[in-house]
Design the sequence.
């Protein structure tokens, strides 16, 4: 049984449906409604539950296909290739992941494109199919280009650009189905579960692939990307849309002008940037794990799994505390915990210690991320939710990438030891505690259950 999209069933002319994302390496996705258009919401019917289930399957399949194949999720085989075969420096490896994820920083543009420019007469179905085949082709090409650093970067930038398009359509379908059935919360929860499942699975699968020839990784990513095609072909039906819509671009331009003048939003964005720009050691840690501790790729994958599992616990902890304390308290708590938690890496000297440190870091990282996402959501101006939140996440993602490059540069060019880098990271993060009082009281003095 096929699923007809909102464009057909509700007949809302000019409706613009976009989705925004957090950083790809976390595997999280945030879905926001359109850029200001009002869409009628049909009442949920008991008889429509089977149809809603099909939407869940479609959206889950699209999320899996566009998340599981990302270089930030299946990170280990790419790290192993860069280090063992291409012999790149820490700085070059960190730059590799930052550059290949470039398209994810500009995901709002993909939303505007798919909403306003039909592909072969549709705005959803053919974008899903086209992006899947293109991503698969680029991943297969990466197996051939794996012997050259620049060639591999170019191919994977193109592959990620295709995944961004597919991910954007998945978000738009989530909004459409959620508004029709009054099930936005259930659908976004399902999307969140699938995305986090990819993060958990990415560690062990990445460890398995890293121990084998890179061609297996290229083929696996291609197959995962293609997994959405049968679902898109059978489930998505749309009426023919032959004309481009300029309304989306006009609204986006007006909202950009409004957002640029929002001091509250940029104050919050500045805090996010300061938290994540602290000299990072994600790439240096991989070199410590492989060169010093001699950990296997499979065990490193298990460490990623542990971090993901405790990250889920951190999510539940934040959900429990946010109705009880104002955001100001949670920000102080999360930033302080992040600074102190970073010092745990000073004891990262054995496999057992690595398991303990990665577990506690997963819990703290999830708590910090949710507190900052809470701040970002509150600071986004009303009426510009999709574009504003996307810009905030772009600031966060850029800071994360620059952080890893900066930490790797310090080690490669200035011979800063890993453990000195840990001290520098903790100290820089702790500095943010003095910036929190500069945030507007309206943002941080109320609890999650307090009306704004």
Sequence:
């Amino acid at each position: 049984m096929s699923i007809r999209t909102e464009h057909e069933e509700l007949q809302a002319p000019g409706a613009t449906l976009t989705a925004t994302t957090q950083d790809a390496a976390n595997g999280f996705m945030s879905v926001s409604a359109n850029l200001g258009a009002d869409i009628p919401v049909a009442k949920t019917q008991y008889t429509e539950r089977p149809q809603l289930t099909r939407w869940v399957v479609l959206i889950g399949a699209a999320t899996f296909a566009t998340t599981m194949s990302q270089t930030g999720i299946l990170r280990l085989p790419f790290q192993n290739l860069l280090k063992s075969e291409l012999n790149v420096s820490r700085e070059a490896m960190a730059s590799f992941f930052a550059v290949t994820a470039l398209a994810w920083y500009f995901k709002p543009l993909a939303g505007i494109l798919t909403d306003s420019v039909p592909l072969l007469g549709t705005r959803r179905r053919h974008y899903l199919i086209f992006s899947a085949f293109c991503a698969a082709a680029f991943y297969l090409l990466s197996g051939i280009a794996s012997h050259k650093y620049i060639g591999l970067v170019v191919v994977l930038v193109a592959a990620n650009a295709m995944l961004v398009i597919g991910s954007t359509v998945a978000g738009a379908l989530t909004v459409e189905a959620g508004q029709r059935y009054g099930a936005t919360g259930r659908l976004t929860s399902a999307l969140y579960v699938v995305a986090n499942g990819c993060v958990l699975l990415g560690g062990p699968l990445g460890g398995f692939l890293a121990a084998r020839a890179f061609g297996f990784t290229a083929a696996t990513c291609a197959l995962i990307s293609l997994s959405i095609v049968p679902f898109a072909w059978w489930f998505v039906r749309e009426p023919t849309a032959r004309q481009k819509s300029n309304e989306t671009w006009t609204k986006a331009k007006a909202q950009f002008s409004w957002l640029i003048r929002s001091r509250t939003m940029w104050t919050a964005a500045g805090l996010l940037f300061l938290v994540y720009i602290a000299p990072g050691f994600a790439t240096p840690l991989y070199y410590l794990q492989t060169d010093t501790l001699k950990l296997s790729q499979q065990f490193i994958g298990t460490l990623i799994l542990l971090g993901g599992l405790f990250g889920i616990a951190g999510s539940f902890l934040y959900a429990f505390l946010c109705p009880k304390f104002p955001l100001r308290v949670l920000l102080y708590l999360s930033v302080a915990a992040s600074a102190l938690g970073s010092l745990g890496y000073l004891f990262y000297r054995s496999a057992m210690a690595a398991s303990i440190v990665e577990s506690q870091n997963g819990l703290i990282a999830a708590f910090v991320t949710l507190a900052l996402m809470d701040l970002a959501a509150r600071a986004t101006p009303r009426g510009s939710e999709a574009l504003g939140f996307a810009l905030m996440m772009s600031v966060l993602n850029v800071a994360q990438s620059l952080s890893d490059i900066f930490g790797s540069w310090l080690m490669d060019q200035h011979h800063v030891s890993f453990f000195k880098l840990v001290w520098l990271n903790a100290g820089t993060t702790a500095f943010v505690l003095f910036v929190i009082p500069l945030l507007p009281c309206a943002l941080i003095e109320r609890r999650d259950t307090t009306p704004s």
About this structure: The first helix runs from residue 6 to 9. Confidence is low (pLDDT under 50) at residues 1-47.
